[in-house]
Design a protein that fits this description.
Major role in the synthesis of nucleoside triphosphates other than ATP. The chain folds into three domains: 82 residues, PH-domain like (Roll), CATH 2.30.29.170; 131 residues, Alpha-Beta Plaits (2-Layer Sandwich); 136 residues, Alpha-Beta Plaits. It has 16 helices and 14 strands. The radius of gyration is 21 Å and the shape is globular. Helix 2 packs antiparallel against helix 10 and helix 3 crosses helix 4. The N and C termini lie far apart (49 Å). The mean pLDDT is 95. By secondary structure, the chain is an alpha+beta fold. The chain binds cytidine-5'-diphosphate and magnesium ion. Cytidine-5'-diphosphate binds next to loops.
C-alpha cells in the first residue's frame, strides 16, 4: 500500500471569521496533498500534486501553506503517522554564548548537517540576574559568578532546535564543557573548533528533556509574559529577511556567513512566523506596483523566516547592493557574488528581502522588532 501521512490541521478562515478543521493527507511518493473538511464531512481539496510541502515540514506545531491557506498542524491524524514522523522528535535549547555570536553561520551549518532544524531563534542580551536565573542549578558552584558574568557580557542567540533525539545530538555536537578535555578527546566537536576555555565554550545545550522544556520556556514563553528582549537598536539600520523558502532549504547558515564575511554587522536577529495579514501589511507599498505582490505575500507567510537588523552608517544602500537585483537570474549574470545570485531561485524565492529606501530601514526593523515582537 502507498505511504500516506495524516494530520489534523486548523485554518483561520478570515471571511467567515471561523477556525476550520481539516484532515490533511500527504503522499510522499508524488508529493501530493488532500484535504477533508472535518465539520462538514466532505472532501475539501482533491488529491493534488503540490510542490511546496516537504515531509520535513510536517511536524506538530508547524505551519504549512497549502494553496495560500496557512494550516496549523495540531495533531497527528493516525498512529502510523505519529510513529513514523513523531516518535523521536524532540525540542532542545541551544544558547550561543557572547564571544562566538559572529560564528553563528558556521554553527548553523553544523546543526543542519546533523539533521536538526532551527524552529525558533532570538538574539538577546541577558542582564546579570536573568543569566543567574538561567544558570540557577549551578548557584553553589565555584565558577558560578564568572559564568553569569560572561553570559551577560554581550548579546547571545537562543535557539530552539528540533529533530530526532535533538537534545542528545546537540550535546554530542558540542562536546564536553572542559576546554582541554574537548580538544584532546573530541577535536571535531563544536567546542573544540570554536571554543577558548571551560567558560568560553561556544554554547549551552539542555541536558535533559525537562531542562529543555524549562529553558525553552525561559526564552520563548508559551504564554504572553516577560522574556528576554531583542537587541534591535532602531537607528542607522536596514532590514533583511531570510525568506521562508531559504530557511526551509537550510540556507540560513550560508547566508549569515556571507553577510558577516562581507563586513556587515548584525545587531538583531529573530525568527518570525508571519501571519498572512501581517505579510500583506508589510508589503503594502508593493501592492499594485509589483506584479508578484500576492506571491510575495504567500512566500513570506509560508513558514518561519529569519529577520535581521543590519547596523551601520548609510548601510541601507550598500546592503541593498550586496543583496543584488531582485531577479536571481539577472543577478547571476550581472552580480554573481550577491546574495540573490548565490541563494535565490526565482523573483519570489529570491532568498532575501532587503529594505528598498534608506528612510524605510528603521520602519521595517520596527515592524518586526517592535510591533510583531511586542
Ligand atoms: O555546558 P554543559 O552542560 O556542558 O556543562 P555544565 O557542567 O552544565 O556547566 C555549565 C557551564 O559552566 C559550562 O558550559 C561552562 O561554561 C561553565 N563551567 C566552568 O566554567 N567551569 C567548570 N568547571 C564547569 C563548568
Ligand atoms: Mg549543563
Amino acid at each position: 500500500m502507498e505511504d500516506r501521512y495524516a494530520f489534523l490541521a486548523e485554518w483561520y478562515d478570515p471571511t467567515a471569521a471561523l477556525l476550520r478543521r481539516f484532515q490533511l493527507f500527504f503522499y510522499p511518493k508524488d508529493g501530493s496533498v488532500e484535504m477533508f473538511d472535518v465539520k462538514n464531512q466532505r472532501v475539501f481539496l482533491r488529491r493534488t500534486k503540490y510542490d511546496n510541502i516537504h515531509q520535513e515540514d510536517l511536524f506538530m506545531g508547524n505551519r504549512v501553506n497549502v494553496f495560500s491557506r496557512q494550516l496549523n498542524l495540531i495533531e497527528y491524524g493516525d498512529q502510523y503517522t505519529a510513529n513514523k514522523l513523531g516518535s523521536k522528535k524532540e525540542r532542545t535549547l541551544a544558547l550561543i554564548k557572547p564571544d562566538v555570536v559572529t560564528k553563528i553561520g558556521d554553527i548553523l551549518e553544523l546543526i543542519y548537517s546533523s539533521n536538526l532544524i532551527v524552529t525558533k531563534a532570538k538574539m538577546t542580551k541577558l542582564s546579570w540576574s536573568q543569566a543567574a536565573d538561567f544558570y540557577m542549578e549551578h548557584q553553589s558552584k565555584p565558577f558560578f559568578n564568572n559564568l553569569v558574568q560572561f553570559v551577560s557580557s554581550g548579546p547571545v542567540v537562543a535557539m530552539e532546535l528540533m529533530g530526532d533525539e535533538a537534545m542528545s545530538i546537540w550535546r554530542k555536537l558540542l562536546g564536553p564543557a572542559d576546554g582541554a578535555v574537548v580538544r584532546r578527546e573530541v577535536p571535531r566537536s563544536i567546542r573544540a573548533q570554536f571554543g577558548t576555555d571551560g567558560i568560553k565554550n561556544v554554547a549551552h545545550g539542555s541536558d535533559s528533556l525537562a531542562a529543555a522544556a524549562r529553558e525553552l520556556e525561559f526564552f520563548f514563553p508559551s504564554t504572553i509574559g516577560h522574556c528576554p528582549s531583542n537587541t534591535a537598536v532602531f537607528t542607522d539600520c536596514t532590514c533583511c529577511i531570510i525568506k521562508p523558502h531559504a530557511v526551509s532549504e537550510g540556507l540560513t547558515g550560508k547566508i549569515l556567513n556571507s553577510i558577516s564575511e562581507a563586513g556587515f554587522q548584525i545587531s538583531a536577529l529573530q525568527m518570525f512566523s508571519v501571519e498572512l495579514a501581517n505579510a500583506e501589511e508589510f508589503y503594502e507599498v508593493y501592492k499594485g506596483v509589483v506584479p508578484e505582490y500576492s506571491s510575495m505575500v504567500n512566500e513570506l507567510s509560508s513558514g518561519p523566516c529569519m529577520v535581521l537588523e543590519i547596523h551601520g552608517t548609510d548601510v541601507s544602500k550598500t546592503f541593498r547592493e550586496f543583496c543584488g537585483p531582485s531577479d536571481p537570474d539577472i543577478a547571476r549574470h550581472l552580480r554573481p557574488a550577491t546574495l540573490r545570485a548565490l541563494y535565490g531561485s526565482t523573483k519570489v524565492k529570491n532568498a532575501v528581502h532587503c529594505t528598498d529606501l534608506p528612510e524605510d530601514g528603521v520602519l521595517e526593523v520596527q515592524y518586526f522588532f517592535k510591533i510583531l515582537d511586542g
